[in-house]
Amino acid sequence: MTTPNAFFTETLLLLGGAVVTAPIFKKLGLGTVLGYLAAGVIIGPVLHGIGDGESVFGVAELGVVFLLFIIGLELKPSRLWSIRQDIFGLGTAQVVLTGLALTAIAYVAGIAGWRGCIVAGFGLALSSTAFAMQILEGDGDVNTRYGQRSFSILLFQDLAIVPLLALVSVLNGHAEDSGNPLVSLAVAFGAVGGMIVAGRYLLTPLFQVIARTGAREAMIAAALFVVIGAASLMQLAGLSMAMGAFLSGVMLAESSYRHELEADIEPFRGVLLAIFFIAVGLSLQLQVIFDNALFIVLAVPVMMIVKGVILYALCRATGSGHDDAVRIAFLLPQGGEFGFVLFSAASITGLLTESTASMLIAIVTLSMALTPLGATLSKRLLSKDQHEELDEDFEGAGADVLMIGFSRFGQIAAQILLAGGREVTVIDFSADRIRQAANFGFRIYFGDGTRKDVLRAAGIDRAKVVVVCTHAREITDKIVELVQADYPHARIFVRSYDRIHSIALRNRGVDYELRETLESGLLFGRRTLEELGISESDAYEIGEDIRKRDEARLVLQVSEGLQAGRGLLFSQPVKPEPLVKPKRTAELFDEDISMPAEETANA
Questions:
Q1: Mean per-residue pLDDT for 275-287?
Q2: Is the dihedral of CA 47, 48, 49, 53 positive or negative?
Q3: What's the Cα-to-Cα distance from 447 to each of 37, 90, 425, 439, 455, rounded to whole Å?
Q4: Residue 402: beta bridge partners?
Q5: Among 52-66, 73-87, 141-155, 520-534, whose mean pLDDT is lowest?
Q6: What's the per-residue H, E or C state across 128-155?
Q7: 84 to each of 77, 78, 105, 156, 343, how far by Cα in Å?
Q8: 242: which of 131, 160, 216, 599 is 20 to 30 A away, CA to CA?
Q9: Taking the CB of residue 353, how many other CB atoms lie within 10 A of it?
Q10: Mean of the pLDDT values across residues 50-67?
């Protein structure tokens, strides 16, 4: 019998590990990332099913590359420019302060000479882009304020790997052998500039040409070519592959092919990222952990606490609230993939011994494994009365219809408007609702509709109709009052809470109001009559009669008060049965017979 090819055997083990562990850990509430790590540990160090974890890393790193490409697709260049202060301000402060603090701790612990301690300290200061972004994406938090600040820090860390690698050569006294660090920086920034130019003037025309051919497989191949090509270019320039993929995604963020590209790349991203996490587990050296168990057990929590405290303090000092600062501190305390690169380079140059480098890599790996648990634990430290907020980004907003509130009522109304070919700008103050809408392809803007600056940014000056679909009566009234006072040109259509609210809105002079339950109640009653044997046409006419009676009663109640129009209500079945279209208008029942005001008010 033919022996299976080693490549296919290893692939089968990796995929099998992902299939088995991911659902189990997800069911236990521990997250899929920990499941993949556990699979890697079992397949590699425990069962020795795959001996060479480094070869798996080479392929699996594409998972991180594809992840950053998809994130780039969601981030327009203007949005990236708006977070530049977080990238170069907060990011720089985090790397420098954390690196210095961990360098001092490493020197006190005596793990190496002062030069080696600098490499260890700054290597441990970096965080894992793969772990952090997977957690953010899994929770749908990439576009939250804390998600964007976390991403800014990670982005700067990807940039920082160039000077840090140069620092290894400088500390070893062989800087002349590796070239001028300034030249390396110039090459890196030149590569970034080249990527931006290529993305702006080459990528979109390329996909336009391929799209005209109608060959879907060519589009998929082109997407893979662009992502891997950009990643390789950045690697040649001394930057991370993930940085190149991210930049190519940003350059295509405004392309009309963005959604198709995301759909093409997503399957590759999911599988390869899972294999990346398994590869981290494969690389764990259990013997190194056993030999240095006491030191590692102390070092991992110390490193994570130091990083977490500095992150929390920096975020608070730069304007983040308590909850966001806690989330960031628990999301980024682990070591990162670039730590592997930095420690390996330091080991080759002699700044770190091979055993010390292996111990530091084990610390990074264990800290990665603890990250999902830390992210879960952080939720216990959040404020109880919290309202999650997203960044208010209104780029592209401004349509004939401005809809405020995207709950179930607004979603149905939006479908009618979109089907009618009308552009709709929607704002909502629920981060969860915005994430849910994004899963179905809707672009919803985050914003508080009771704020004048938010309405202006959302394009109310250009709106012909303002549609208020908020649920709480108090919020609705506040929005109506604001729009009527400051934007009298706009017609106001409002979803009312109940009958009393409808009367109040009519007294305010809104252009149109509708109770959420009116139309559904009329249709429900008609369908019930049809089930009882009444023809569809007769049921429709009865429904229209009730609609007219309801409107007439509302008109009377607006002018005469809540008790007016009681004679328009039916309190007994109308005779004869079965109901037929009446020859003459039925007399109203005795107005002396009244229903309780509370029951009739909300009818």
A1: 76
A2: positive
A3: 39, 25, 12, 19, 8
A4: 425, 466
A5: 52-66
A6: CHHHHHHHHHHCCCCCEHHHHHHHHHHH
A7: 11, 10, 31, 10, 29
A8: 216
A9: 14
A10: 69
* CA distance readout (Å), 347 to 226, 239, 342: 34, 20, 9
21 vs 37: CA distance, rounded Å:
9
Closest to 310 in 3D by CA, of 153, 173, 81: 153
Q: Which residues pair with 404 in a beta bridge?
A: 427, 468
Question: What CA dihedral angle connects 41, 46, 49 and 55, to 10 degrees?
Answer: 50
Average pLDDT, the chain: 79
Dig out the tokens for 331 from the structure.
């999301």
Cα–Cα distance measured from residue 531 to residue 223, given in angstroms and rounded to the nearest whole number? 55
What are the pLDDT digits (tens) for 415-461? Answer: 998 888 888 888 888 877 877 777 776 777 877 888 887 888 788 88
Strand spans (E) along 110-213: none
| Dihedral sign (CA 225, 226, 228, 230) | positive
Q: Which of 311, 289, 294 is nearest to 364 (CA)?
A: 289
Secondary structure of residue 563 in the 3-state scheme: coil
Which amino acid belongs to residue 76?
K
Residue 595 predicted with pLDDT over 50: no
Q: How many residues does the chain have?
A: 603
- State residue 308's pLDDT score: 93
| Average pLDDT of span 285-312 | 89
pTM score, two decimals?
0.57
The closest of 122, 153, 545, 89 to 318, measured between CA atoms, is: 89
- CB within 8 A of 452, min separation 6: which ones? 482, 486
Please report, for residues 181, 350, 473, 493, the alpha-carbon distance to residue 178 in angstroms, rounded to integers and kept in the order given. Answer: 8, 15, 68, 68
CA distance 63 to 470: 41
| Structure-token pair, residue 27 | 């069911």
Output the CA torsion sign for 435, 436, 438, 444: negative
Closest CA to 566 of 553, 547, 584: 553
Q: Is 95 exposed, middle or buried (0-12, 13-18, 19+ CB in 10 A)?
A: buried
